[in-house]
Write a structure and sequence with these properties.
This protein has 134 residues and is mainly alpha-helical. The chain has a domain of 72 residues: Winged helix-like DNA-binding domain superfamily/Winged helix DNA-binding domain (Arc Repressor Mutant, subunit A). It contains six helices and three strands; from the N terminus they run αααβααββα. Strands 1-3-2 form a three-stranded antiparallel sheet. Keywords: DNA-binding, Transcription, Transcription regulation. InterPro entries: HTH_HxlR (IPR002577), WH-like_DNA-bd_sf (IPR036388), WH_DNA-bd_sf (IPR036390).
């Protein structure tokens, strides 16, 4: 049997190799799962805003993301929390006081997003003119 960590470097030939790479728990499935977690107009801006601040209230997020509706912001915050990328902290106070912060899993995603940005900037039409570094 092939080492499972190396299966993403080649095209799988045998049925067993296909299952490791393309099966229900294969490399392609896991990458697609991460993409689904961050795929939407507002999830990445929310995540990058939360990387900048250790904790932030919903109203401040709404101010910092011009154009986002309260409904979309709430829905995306719930999805990000459900996926484990952020944490919702309810202080149990009246009036309601809720803050959001990055979870450990969300902090582990940051290097992946930085790598995706580097890939994008180095493969853009303007990459030949200047390559921007984070």
């Amino acid at each position: 049997m092939m080492d499972e960590t190396s299966t993403h470097f080649y095209v799988p030939i045998t049925q067993e190799q296909r299952e490791i790479c393309l099966g229900p728990e294969g490399s392609a499935w896991h990458v697609a799962r991460v993409i689904k977690m961050i795929q939407s107009r507002w999830k990445l801006p929310i995540l990058f805003r939360l990387y900048a601040d250790p904790s932030i209230r919903t109203l401040q997020l709404k101010r910092d993301l011009p154009g986002v509706s309260q409904k979309m912001l709430t829905a995306h915050l719930r999805e990000l929390a459900s996926d484990g990328l952020i944490e919702r902290i309810d202080f149990g106070e009246k009036p309601l006081r809720v803050e959001y912060q990055m979870s450990e899993m969300g902090r582990q995603l940051l290097p992946v997003l930085i790598a995706a940005r580097r890939f994008s900037t180095s493969h853009s039409p303007k990459a030949d003119e200047s390559s921007e570094e984070i």
